[in-house]
C-alpha cells in the first residue's frame, strides 16, 4: 500500500513541476507581450506568488502577475489549478468581477476564453490576450 502512495506522490510531483513550468513560460510570454506598454509607462508588472490550496497535484505556491494599468486598474494573472476537464490546467485573468480564462489543453497549447458570456476557447496569441485585457478593464 505504501508503495502505491509513494508512486502517486512521485506522479503528483512530476505533474505539478510540469504545470508550474508551463505557467512560468506563459507568464514570461505575457511579460514579453506587455514589454512595450511597460517601457512607455502604460503598464506596470509585478511578479507575485499565489497559493493554490487544493489541487489534483497537491497544494503549492505558483507564480502570478499583477498588471497595473492607468486609472488604478489592476489585472491579476494567476493559476487556478490543474483540475479541469479536457485540459492540463487553468490560469485566471481577473480584473474586479470580470474574468477571462487561459486553458492549457492536453496537447500543451494555451487557449483563451474572454470574459463575454458566449466566448469560445481560441488559441492564445498576443492579439487575443490584448483583446481580453481590453474587455476586462472596460
Which key features would you list for this structure?
138 residues; alpha+beta; seven-stranded antiparallel beta sheet; 3 helices; 37% strand
Write a structural description.
With 138 residues, the chain is of the alpha+beta class. The protein has one domain (2-137). The protein is 36% helix and 37% strand. It contains 3 helices and 7 strands. It has helices at 2-33, 35-39, 126-137; strands at 44-52, 60-69, 73-81, 87-95, 98-105, 110-113, 122-123. A 7-stranded antiparallel sheet has the order 1-2-3-4-5-6-7, with helices on one face. The termini are far apart.
Describe how the helices and strands are arranged.
Layout: H1 2-33, H2 35-39, E1 44-52, E2 60-69, E3 73-81, E4 87-95, E5 98-105, E6 110-113, E7 122-123, H3 126-137
Antiparallel strand pairs: 1-2, 2-3, 3-4, 4-5, 5-6, 6-7
Q: Report on the biggest sheet.
A: 7 strands, antiparallel
Helical residue percent band: 25-40%
Adjacency order of strands in the biggest sheet = 1-2-3-4-5-6-7
Span between termini: 54 Å
> What is the domain total for the residues?
1
Shape: globular
Q: How would you state the average pLDDT, rounded?
A: 87
Low-confidence stretches: none
Radius of gyration, whole Å: 16 Å
Number of helices, where a helix is a run of at least 4 consecutive DSSP H or I residues:
3
Helix/strand/pairing class, anyone? alpha+beta
Beta strands, count: 7
Beta-strand content bin: 35-45%
Order of helices and strands: HHEEEEEEEH
